[in-house]
Amino acid sequence: MSKKILVICSSYRKGGNSETLADSFIQGARSAGNVVEKVRLADGQIAFCRGCLCCQGEGVTSCVIDDYANVVSAKMHDADVIVFATPVYYYGMSGNLKTMLDRANPLYGGDYKFTDIYLLATAADDGESAVRGTLTGIECWAECFERCSVKGYVFAGGVEKKGDIGGRRELQDAFTLGKAIS
Q1: Residue 177 in contact with residue 85, Cβ under 8 Å?
Q2: Helix ranges restricted to H, 1-63
Q3: CATH code at 119?
Q4: Torsion of the alpha carbons at 144, 132, 87 and 8, rounded to the nearest 10
Q5: Contact 144/76 with Cβ under 8 angstroms?
Q6: Which of 65, 105, 120, 165 gives the lowest tally of CB atoms within 10 Å of its CB?
Q7: CA distances from 142 to 61, 66, 81, 125 (A)
Q8: Is residue 60 pLDDT above 90, yes or no?
Q9: In terms of residue numbers, what domain contains 88?
Q10: SS3 of 161, please?
Q11: Closest CA to 88 of 147, 160, 40
Q12: Is the pTM higher than 0.90?
């Protein structure tokens, strides 16, 4: 049975290294018969969470801040699988991905569908420790949702300039990870 997969690209650099990694994952997931949608956080305005917790009211399904985060959260809600693609800055996920995760708070405690989370990350630093903070952040977010967990990740280090990821084995790793989802 095919899965509905949402890939969230958080880089502002269109066609950058993390988005290229995501595109490879998408090709693999589609080749396995899955339905995949890619969203770019840079395609809309996302304000910071105000911490008002209005989103936790009974029957509330979206944030009181009416912006692109509500669109993305609704897509997250309906996906079987969520894939986060991010460049790593200062050993953590991009700020706009962190903001999106904060703004996805209306999903908490709700009837969300997703159970599997994947991470695709790129960084200029090529040490495996470069992704540790990002992976921990995604794992901690996933732990807040009792039916979900991080199932895998691909990290491509040593890629700084746009296009540096070209020809790297991590592109095949991402394809293979996507293709394994069924």
Answers
A1: no
A2: 17-31
A3: 3.40.50.360
A4: -30
A5: no
A6: 65
A7: 19, 24, 12, 25
A8: no
A9: 4-179
A10: coil
A11: 160
A12: yes
Q: What is the DSSP letter of 90?
A: T
Q: Tokens for 126, please give them.
A: 């090529």
81 membership: H or E segment, kind and range: strand 81-89
Q: How far apart are CA 164 and CA 144, in angstroms?
A: 35
- The tally of domains found in the chain comes to 1
* Residue 16, C-beta contacts closer than 8 angstroms, at least 6 positions apart: 87, 122, 162
Backbone angles phi, psi at 9, to 5 degrees: -95, 125
Q: How far apart are CA 157 and CA 149, in angstroms?
A: 24
What whole-number distance in Å separates Cα of residue 109 and Cα of residue 1? Answer: 26
| Residue 182 in this model has a pLDDT that exceeds 90 | no
Q: Please tell me whether residue 95 adopts helix, strand or coil conformation.
A: helix
Taking residues 111-116, what's their average pLDDT? 95
pLDDT at 179: 98
Cα 25 from Cα 19, distance rounded (Å): 10
Query: Given the DSSP bridges, would you call strands 81-89 and 92-93 parallel, antiparallel or unpaired?
Result: antiparallel
